[in-house]
Each structure stands twice: as C-alpha cells, then as structure tokens.
UniProtKB/TrEMBL annotation:
Pfam families, per the entry: DUF4139, DUF4140
Domain DUF4140: 28-124
Coiled coil, from the record: 86-116
Keywords recorded for this protein, A-Z: Coiled coil
Keyword Metal-binding: no
Protein name: CHP02231
Amino acid sequence: MEQKSGGQFVQDMLISGDDGGNIIFEAVVFLEQAYIKRKARVKALPGINRFLMEIKAFDMEKDSVQAVVSGHGEILSVQYKETYVKDAPQQDLQNLESKKNELKKQKNVLIQEQEIRKKQTGFLDSISAFSEAEIPKQIKTQFPDIKSLESILEFLGKNYENLGRQSHELENGINDIDKDIDLIETQLKQFKKSGQTVQKFIEVLFNSSEENDIGIEISYSAANASWEPVYKIDVLPDLSDAVITMFAKIEQNTGENWENTSLSISNAVPVKTTALPDLKTWYISQWSSEPVSDDAMLGAAMRTPVEDKDLIDETLFFDMDEPREEAEFVHAEGINLPISFEYRLPQQVNLDSGQGETLVPIFTKKTDCEFFIYAIPQKDPLAYLVCQINADKEMLAGRLNIHFGGRFVGTTLISDKRPGEEMMLSLGADRGVKISREKIRDKKTETFFGMVDRLSVARELGYKIIIENLKDEPVRICLLDSIPVSKTDRIQIKGVEIDTKPTEIDYNSHTGVMLWDFMAEAKSTHEINIKFFVKHPKNSPPLGL
C-alpha cells in the first residue's frame, strides 16, 4: 500500500493489486462475463480519505462499479479511474515471454528427436529395400536361412513399431506445445491491447468520523470469462436407474488471477439494451413475381426446429459387471433467484487468467428414465435403446457424455428444453431387436383408380416392415415411418393402405409421419405393411420418391 497525505484529503492511499491488501475473494461467472469482488482492510483517518483500489482486468464495464465500506463514516463517491504511468509493471510480460521461449526450446528438442526417428526409419527402409534389390554377383552372398530370415523380419517389425509409436508421441508433444504457445501469444496480445501504460483503479472517497479500521469491498463486471454446462448420464446395465451429473466448464481470461476465491456460476443473461422490444404492425403484400413455396415464404423463423442428431455410433456390451460403490462428487449450493439459477461451489478455487478450461461438478441427481427401442428403418436399419427423461428448469443446452454400465458410449448435444419437455438419449444400437424395411411392390400403370390418363403414370408402391424381438423379455417399440406428401397438385398420393393402424398420425406435426408405439412380447415378430399409389406426369418423375 502506498499512502500520501495533504491537499483536500487527509489520506491518499493506493491499494495495489500485487500485495495481500487487495485480493479477489469472490467471482460469479455468467455465460459471457464475470462479476468480481475485491476486498481490503485499511486504517481510515478522521476526514475525507481517498482510497484507490487497483484492478487488472483487461476489459471491464465501468458502469458496473460498486463499493461497500464497513466502518464509522460515510461514502462520498465511487468511480472508475485510469492513470497513465511512464514505467508500467512489466513482470507479467516478462514471465510470459520467458515461458514462451522455454516452450520453443522444448519444441526444438522434440523436432530434433523427430528428425532422428525419421533417419532411423529411413535406415530400416534401406535395409528392407536392399533385401528386395538385385545384387551384383561379385557381392552376392548366400541367401539367409529361414531362422536368420525370421530374425531379420522380427528385427524390422519391432523397430518399425517402436519408431512409429515414438513418432506419434513426439507429434502429440509438438502439438501440445503449439497449443500452449498459441495461448501465451493470445495473452501477450491482450496485454498489449489493454495497454500496460495504464493503471486502473476504483476510487472510493470515504469521510471517516474517526480514526478506525475499515473494510472496503468493490465489485465490477469483467469480460473474457464464460462457462457452459457439460452433462454426464450414468445408466445401470439392468436399466434400473439413471443418474445425471452436471459440470460447469469454466474459462477465464480476464487478466486477473483468482486465487482462493469463492466461485459461483449463473445462468442469468445480462441485459444488453436499455429498452424493451416493441412490436410494429405486420404488413403483408402480394408478390408481383412468380409465387414461391410456402416454406420459402414462412422463412427460417417458422420452420420446424431441427431435432438433435444422435452422434453415437453403434456399441455392443458384453459381460457388464455390477457397479461398485463409488465416491460421490461434491455438490454446489443451488440458489433459486427470480430470473435465474446460481450455483455456489463449496470450496475455494484457483483459476489463473488464461490457464484454459476448468471443469467443476455442480450437481448429481437421479432422474426418472423410461427405456424403449427407437427405430426409423426408412433411414437407419438399426434399433436403438433409448432413455427418455423430462428436462427440468436447471438444464441448459450443452454437451452430454453418455455412460452405460460404467462404459463410455458416446457424446451427443442437447438443446434448450422447456421444463417437463421430453428428451431422448441414445444408449447405442440394441442387437436384441432386429428391424427391416423392404420394398415389396413397385408397379407402373396408365390406369389410376379405373381412369386412363395417357399423359400420366401411376405407380403402386408397397413396403413391408418386420420387427423381431430376440430378447427373453418384452420390450417397448417406438417405430417411425412415413408416406410421401405432394407439394404440387400435379402429383397425387391416393389409396393409402396400412394393415397395422399407427398410434399417431402426423407425428410431431410432421405431415405424413406415423408412429407405432407398442409392446413386443418376448421372442415375437411383428409385421407392418404399407401400400399407396402415386400419380405423376409421364415425362416428369417426382423427386424424392
């Protein structure tokens, strides 16, 4: 701390951010920024005291500055200040440059080792090539016997394998160093951009009624901090239970290190505008040009949202062990605010600016999960085991890592869901259920329901879907299929016949899409037959059929 006196203030004190008197003790990370709290303990003299608490954030919101003083007296003003100095602190820059140079040295060593491995591989290549080349008679020797030949082949095989593995490890090491160098260069750019000739302070003017020890707390919003949810779901092999764990992936590059700091995360969205949105009159007019399709006129705002695509490859599960008792993750304290949720971590954290991503657990809870087989044989011949859960208001959009019976299955993405909205998670392909879809009829004729039209073609199409439950227990099947829908009156679809009535028609408001939801008994086979006629101009076959 640097203390001066005289002038209009009885005390003019600089509370540096480099010493222990001015520390960050709390941080709340939002989706795009962080709310920082600093504190200091100082002695106030009777009269007006000026305290300058230094901050080192690269980019902060000046209007967000606040201060609280605990002591005898009153606060006169709180405001953000900048001071230009001739010799700004360069220690951070020097440390970053030194670290960058050290990483470059490590990279050069790895590159040299990589060159050595290439030469060693080249030597082995020359031995292999020499054995295949035609040797002049004057240097030709007796061909090695089988035992010697096996030794040579074993030598080449082992060394090729070792060199390949070492080269791969060296390549990974070089890539990791390149990532670290890129991160340091980003930090250096931000240091230069922020201007190290400027020192930033929050000025607190305090009129003390007496000499006393006071506590000062300041708060402000800093940019370059963010978090996003990452989920993990564990499903037991016997499908008796499912547990969801939410993690927060935090990244902060504010320019300030958070050491022994109480950390919270919030899903609140900061207000970006001062005015509420307004709705104007909705005018429509007739196009003077050729009419466009309904989809084009409606535009992106009215189109059906794209459903989450399952990113999980088919997986087989063998001999799954019964799960053992595990240590649980610590839980963050949930705080339900009027417009958001906030989670406060139970332990203090250390997050240095620019150190990369940090993953911390937020909550773990059991969830009601309904399991069934989900299949769309028109698109995919596999039958997928699906866990269906209901989203709650705490769940945000994010990555979901799926574990089944203690094994990692894969990763998918979940979008924002309204509370109570259903969400389906794929656990992989289930080999215990086989589903096939076959075209059994495709016949052309000029007669359409007894009428002859020489300019048109009528096609009779038929499909057979077979569902086989190979399991020893019944399973619920949810199967989707569809019939074509015409976008023009020049193409007609008629005579639709389905021998097994679907549970729902126009499923999820998709015209022509049908859902069959039923229980398939153990060792049973079910069959669905679909037939329809399509009439179209003879010289203009329909697209998508």
